[in-house]
Amino acid sequence: MTKVKRYAGSFAGDKDAAATLREEVLKPGLAKHRVVLLDFDGVELATQSFMHALLAQAVREDPASLEHIEFKNCNDDIQALIEIVVDYAQEDFAVEED
């Protein structure tokens, strides 16, 4: 389990922190076909750009990767941002395939 707060603090707004989390945790875990658990405990707010930097590339590269990413302790706002970014990334992927 990875504590997002360790990378981002209570306000997840830094795209560089999201990129670090993506490169150090998310991508290596997915490459090994492991479930990656992202724990948002203590993260009160996040930006769409943070979530985009964290998730969009993985979803675009392999939409099935979502089956291996779990989100824990997300408040309603963070959950909504995750859904927005995932939907956007999947739509973007579908357009590229056409």
Characterize this entry briefly.
Helix content is 59%, strand content 14%. It has helices at residues 4-8, 15-31, 48-61, 76-97, and strands spanning 2-3, 11-12, 36-39, 45-46, 69-72.
Succession of helices and strands: EHEHEEHEH
Strand order of the largest sheet: 1-3-5
Which residues form runs of ≥5 with pLDDT under 50?
none
DSSP strand (E) fraction? 5-15%
Distance between the termini: 36 Å
Determine the mean pLDDT.
92
Apparent shape: globular
Helix content: 55-70%
- Assembly category: single chain
Alpha-beta classification: alpha/beta
The total domain count is 1
Rg: 12 Å
E-strand count? 5
Number of helices: 4
Instruction: Please give the largest β-sheet.
Output: 3 strands, parallel
Pfam families: DUF4325
Organism: Nocardioides currus
InterPro entries: DUF4325
Protein name: DUF4325 domain-containing protein
Word description of this protein:
The protein is of the alpha/beta class and 98 residues long. It has one domain (2-97). The protein is built from four helices and five strands, in the order βαβαββαβα. The protein has helices spanning 4-8, 15-31, 48-61, 76-97; strands at 2-3, 11-12, 36-39, 45-46, 69-72. The strands form two sheets. The protein has a three-stranded parallel β-sheet with strand order 1-3-5. Strands 2-4 form a two-stranded parallel ribbon. Helix 2 runs parallel beside helix 3 (48-61). It starts with a strand and ends with a helix. It comes from Nocardioides currus.
